[in-house]
Amino acid sequence: MPAWPLAAPTTLTELVGDLRDAPRRTPLGRRPHGTVADDDAYKRIAPAEYFQRLAGVEVPSHGLVSCPSPAHADANPSCHVGRDAGEGWCCHGCGAAGAIYDLASVLLGGPTAQSLRGDEFRRARQHVAAVFGPCA
């Protein structure tokens, strides 16, 4: 017999009361599955294709690969590569994420997301254009 009194069972409704469900979020502001409506044809390339061409990484069907960032020694695959351009990619270990230009920038040692602009963006875009050639 325990030395302390046992509490009466509590129902889930009693526990959470009138709390609302947390809103569903899309990681890093990316859209759910689907194509990307953009005039930039490079942004419509599927992540598995740009990972293979830019990073030399073959993406398995489950979508997990080692992080491509040179700054992240990722022994256990922690980077999820989406199925289509709307999903992009995201490393759950170091937080690097984004789309095609973000990957090119990471591979060149540059920034991602809102920090990828100006000369850094132009450098990433030039790298993508050099690897893929003209994209219509």
Can you describe this structure in just a few lines?
The chain is α+β, with helices and mostly antiparallel strands.
Would you write up a description of this structure?
The protein is of the alpha+beta class. It has one domain (about 30-130). The protein is about 25% helix and about 5% strand. The chain has helices spanning about 10-15, 45-55, 100-105, 120-130, and strands spanning about 65, 80, 90, 95-100. Strands 1-2-3-4 form a 4-stranded antiparallel sheet, covered by helices on one side. A hairpin with a 7-residue loop joins strand 2 (about 80) and strand 3. The longest helix has 15 residues, at about 120-130. The relative contact order is 0.15.
Question: Which SSEs are present, and which pair or pack?
Answer:
Blueprint lengths: L11 H5 L30 H9 L8 E2 L13 E3 L7 E3 L5 E2 L1 H8 L10 H15 L4
Antiparallel strand pairs: 1-2, 2-3, 3-4
Helix pairs in contact: 2-3, 3-4
Q: Low-confidence parts lasting 5 or more residues at pLDDT below 50? A: 25-34
Mean pLDDT: 84
Q: Tally of extended strands?
A: 4
What percentage of the residues does DSSP assign to strands (E)?
A: 5-15%
Strand order of the largest sheet: 1-2-3-4
Q: What does the largest sheet look like?
A: 4 strands, antiparallel
Q: H/E order of the elements?
A: HHEEEEHH
Distance between the termini: 76 Å
What is the 3D shape?
elongated
